Amino acid sequence: MERTLSIIKPDGVAKGLIGEVARRFEKTGIRIAAMKMIHMTKKQAQGFYAVHRERPFFDSVTDFMSSGPCVVMVLEGDNVIARNRELMGATNPEDAAEGTIRKDFATDIEKNVVHGSDAPETAAFEIGYFFNGLEIVG
Length: 138
Ligand code: GDP
Hints:
alpha+beta; globular; 4-stranded antiparallel β-sheet; 138 residues; 4 strands; binds guanosine-5'-diphosphate
């Protein structure tokens, strides 16, 4: 059993996609073990995306992530890190496979509706960034 962090980004929340994204997870047997709505400050977004601090898009993506509310979730299931990445699709919606969340709903490479951890170590960091143990229902 594995856990990963999912975020419905500000564009996804603004487009009314909370239910649609959660439905796609639940439909494929992924369990939502924690869920809450937050509105990150710029500083909190910078902390979350700290691995990208040297990238040219760091300022822009942290502005975007702090521009409105997000829904953060802990997902649980076998191989859920990879399964979630598959449901999300490629970072750039132009490259995303048919039927993925980003192909269906993303605006561009930045406003791409969802985030998902990419490895067990990042999942552990990202889950701990937003949730304490009491908030995750086992
Ligand atoms: P992910 O794991 O698929 O989310 O992709 P990355 O970890 O590479 O990038 C993190 C996030 O930064 C992406 O989901 C986008 O929101 C944003 N991003 C990535 N690449 C670019 C880019 O070239 N330009 C801009 N403006 N944003 C980007």
